[in-house]
Amino acid sequence: MSEADSDGTDIRRAVVLDYLAHGLSDDGRPQYEKSPAGYALGIDDFQLYQVAFDEEERLTIGSEVVVEPPSEREIVTEAHRVDYEDLSSGAQSELEYVVADLVEENEQRFVDFYNDAQPITLRLHQLNLLPGIGKKLRNGILDERKRKPFESFDELSERVSGLHDPDEVLVERILEELRDDDLKYQTFVGRREQEQNQ
């Protein structure tokens, strides 16, 4: 995941969503000048990247690569942020699976979201931003976490009646934030930058 090197450099890793061995279709250069390209999703902050890869490397969808800082890149030669609409259709269709895998692989981080979520305004709580979580479910989660913090998704579904797939609810919210950059509140996408700017 995110790690700081011995010199304090913040390393950002991403998962490859699509690998285009012959470069991007809208790249007007002759084929021999194009480098392999693709799209990737940031592991910590779910930022989307368009990337160019080293000619010598052969990658598969799901590979992990370093996108930032440039000095730490090994396979990626260029990376810049893009929006959901800019992704190839292959990357868009892969996105849901990659997000679901990241939520599953980082279960503790996302269970902690349920444990630590706070009110945003007097009327709106972070938990209410999750699809399907209204007042009743939110209150159920808050009451249960006061008794004892949740330790897993399974425990969340057992202890909070009506909350059947707490991991899928998070995946839905992350995908919603990725697809709609006009959302007023971003809870997961770009979270790291928000924290750094505070």
TrEMBL record:
Q: Which one Pfam family would you cite for this protein? A: DUF655
Q: What is this protein called?
A: Putative nucleotide binding protein
| Domain of life of the native organism | Archaea
Organism for this UniProt entry:
Natronorubrum texcoconense
Q: Which PANTHER family match?
A: DNA-BINDING PROTEIN (PTHR40734:SF1), TRNA-SPECIFIC ADENOSINE DEAMINASE-RELATED (PTHR40734)
Q: Quote the InterPro entries the UniProt record gives.
A: DUF655 (IPR007003), NA-bd_OB-fold (IPR012340)
Q: What is the lineage of its organism?
A: Archaea, Methanobacteriati, Methanobacteriota, Stenosarchaea group, Halobacteria
